[in-house]
């Protein structure tokens, strides 16, 4: 999918969602070339593009989203940045508060220090003595 320069000739089959494009550039199309192009479509010798299969539908959705976002950005970049940046900022704050909440609630006590013999330290670490 691409944007066609104006004027362009495109023939769309509405039942199968296939489209046909002439091989010649639009400014070189004569009435005879258009007649040959239409005749080749009727006899199914012209290449067809598009369709209604799942990969084409997915690509069409991607293309529509991309072109819509491009048009929004070209029309008003500040508003587009706010429309997408503000929800993403709130989502990042929500994710941060969910995944980093244990850091905020951590105890601020100093770890206990042991001063004694090395054997007593091993017993203290293993929890054998109090």
UniProtKB/TrEMBL annotation:
Record field: transmembrane: 78-99
InterPro entries listed in its UniProt record: PDI_TMX3
Locations listed in the record: Membrane
Molecular function terms from GO: isomerase activity
Domain of life: Eukaryota
A GO CC annotation given for this chain: membrane
Main location: membrane
Alphabetical UniProt keywords: Isomerase, Membrane, Transmembrane, Transmembrane helix
Topology versus the membrane: Single-pass membrane protein
Keyword Transmembrane helix (UniProt): yes
Name the UniProt record assigns to this protein: Protein disulfide-isomerase TMX3
Species, as recorded: Portunus trituberculatus (Swimming crab)
């Amino acid at each position: 999918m691409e944007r066609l320069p104006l004027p362009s000739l495109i023939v769309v089959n509405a039942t199968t969602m296939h489209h046909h494009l002439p091989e010649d550039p639009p400014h070189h199309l004569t009435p005879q070339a258009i007649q040959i192009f239409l005749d080749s479509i009727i006899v199914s010798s012209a290449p067809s593009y598009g369709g209604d299969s799942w990969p084409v539908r997915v690509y069409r959705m991607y293309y529509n989203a991309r072109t819509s976002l491009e048009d929004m950005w070209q029309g008003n970049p500040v508003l587009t940045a706010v429309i997408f940046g503000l929800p993403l900022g709130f989502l990042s704050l929500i994710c941060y508060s969910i995944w980093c909440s244990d850091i905020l609630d951590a105890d601020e006590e100093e770890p206990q220090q042991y001063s004694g013999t090395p054997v007593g330290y091993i017993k203290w670490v293993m929890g054998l003595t109090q």
